[in-house]
Amino acid sequence: MAPDPPDDGPRGERGRGAVAAALLPLLGGAANLASVENCMTRLRVTVRDPSAVRRGELRALPGVLGVVEDGPALQIVLGPGTVAKVAPELARHMEPGPAESVTAEAVTTESVPAEAVPAGAVTAEALAERGAAIRAERKARNATPAREFLRRIAQIFVPLIPALIGCGIVAGLAGLLANLHWLPALAPALTACASGFMSLIAVFVGYNTAKEFGGTPVLGGAVAAIIVFPGVDRVTAFGEKLMPGQGGVLGALAAALLATRVERWCRRRVPEALDVLVTPTVTVLVAGLVTLYGLMYAAGKAATAIGHFADRLLANGGTAAGFVLGGLFLPLVMLGLHQALIPIHATLIQQQGHTVLLPILAMAGAGQVGAALAVYVRLSHNASVRRTIRSAMPAGLLGIGEPLIYGVSLPLGRPFVTACVGGAFGGAFVGLLGQLGDTVGSTAIGPSGWALFPLLQGGHGLGRAVAVYGAGLLVGYAAGFVATYAFGLSRESLRELNAGGEKSPSGD
């Protein structure tokens, strides 16, 4: 069995170190760690030898909400707050050394194929193995250049999520104080705290873009900074004067990509003795001029079109759009196509202060929760699967859906489809109210489920936005539950699954 963390939990210094110490041997030891990073809820660990990872014990470790395999990387779901404290503790144990490449085929063969799982093995462990096999198969099938590009685009924005969340909550607090006419002297200060990052987000996007695509990060940031420089209003492109911030994150992304290409071209051709002078100069000059006289204008038109399209979508067809978006989001996540939405969310937040798409897409998680609850009720004699659902449900309510998806609904098959049905009805409800004028948006990306409540913003105030979003969650829960209870499990599946374990005396 995996060692348990001490009783003081992950909040204190001892607790953080104990969680990292417990994870270390299960990941193959310090020598097996190639990189350790974290996003808002997940610990992202790249290992040199995937076969050395003790996956079963890792999933069973207290505090681990789920484990998702992503090529040579493991995404260990620890939840918000905890992961930010555990990641640096685990990184301290890393040993320097080159990471070995691992092919998608190696990862796929490492996982237990779904066909190898015996028909009678319907415990939570068997479902987890099926889920891991499905994800590995999808990962290998989806390893196309286009999806790899989308994954790298997503990696540009993931490090920005904590700042987006913090600034979004501060902006909401400033708006609340202004609406209630409380502490009038403090509201402008809070607005400044919330708006400073957003006014310079293009610089951070440019920096991360160059870093992700192999350029010098500060050069990517320098070129992207042109977009937010106040003096661009003296430049005319295509017969129009430019405005500071025109093009936003899309322009910054394109400018930094161009800067990276120019820099790498120079590195191959400029003599080493002149490289330190020539390469940065040419990179900033060429990429900067193209940004001013082309990219800012084009990206500005694209960003404006995105904003207008989102507004028209909800105003004229919010119900249908919500049904489609809420119902298809989970399959999009499986295919990796959801990453294309991240720049769109960021563009809407920069333009309008919030993204109206995220609350609709969050309904997919509500459908998943409802489906898992129905499976819990139907499998009254399978204590193993019910225990998995109970342990993963708090994370699901907070919008962390992987443990329920890959541990329950996707391995079972039909419950995944009925979870999408629940998400579709929840999305349709939020879209319908948006069509009627009660729009609700999120001031940041990243959180979902209940964790999205502090980031909500609406056209009729925070109270209405919370009510609309909360009602949408309830519709998603209910629709996912009813669809799964009625159609998610066949009679044969129920007999097989309920034969997987004896009913406990407590009913679990």
UniProtKB/TrEMBL annotation:
Alphabetized UniProt keyword annotations: Cell membrane, Kinase, Membrane, Phosphotransferase system, Sugar transport, Transferase, Transmembrane, Transmembrane helix, Transport
Localization, UniProt: Cell membrane
Residue ranges constituting the PTS EIIB type-1 domain according to the UniProt record: 17-100
Domain of life: Bacteria
Membrane-protein topology: Multi-pass membrane protein
Domain PTS EIIC type-1, chain residue ranges per copy: 151-503
UniProt-listed SUPFAM superfamilies: Glucose permease domain IIB (SSF55604)
Transmembrane segment boundaries: 156-180, 186-207, 214-232, 274-300, 320-344, 356-377, 416-434, 466-487
Family matches, as PROSITE patterns: PTS_EIIB_TYPE_1 (PS51098), PTS_EIIB_TYPE_1_CYS (PS01035), PTS_EIIC_TYPE_1 (PS51103)
Record: active site: C39 (phosphocysteine intermediate)
Gene3D superfamilies documented for this protein: Glucose permease domain IIB
PANTHER family the record matches: PHOSPHOTRANSFERASE SYSTEM TRANSPORT PROTEIN, PTS SYSTEM N-ACETYLMURAMIC ACID-SPECIFIC EIIBC COMPONENT
Name of this protein: Permease
Organism: Streptomyces hiroshimensis
